[in-house]
Amino acid sequence: MSQFTADKTLDARGLSCPMPSVKTALALEAMGQGQVLLILTDDPVSRRDLPVWAESTGNTILGLEEEGATIKIFLKKG
User: Fold this and answer.
1) Which CATH architecture has domain 8-76?
2) Of 14, 23, 27, 72, which is least surrounded by CB within 10 A?
């Protein structure tokens, strides 16, 4: 169970790089600063790419959890 509470969840499972990042950017456009987005992905590349993308765009990765094949990434909008 996560210690973070998400304001919105993005299900990007079944998508491969770069689509999880693209969908994340679109989801963040509709969110306010400081809100938390939970990204669900099964693309192993996202484990590395989403944190790098988040840092380069002024957002913050709060945590990353793995549950079976699903990777949960908690991102705070900067």
Assistant:
1) 2-Layer Sandwich (3.30)
2) 14
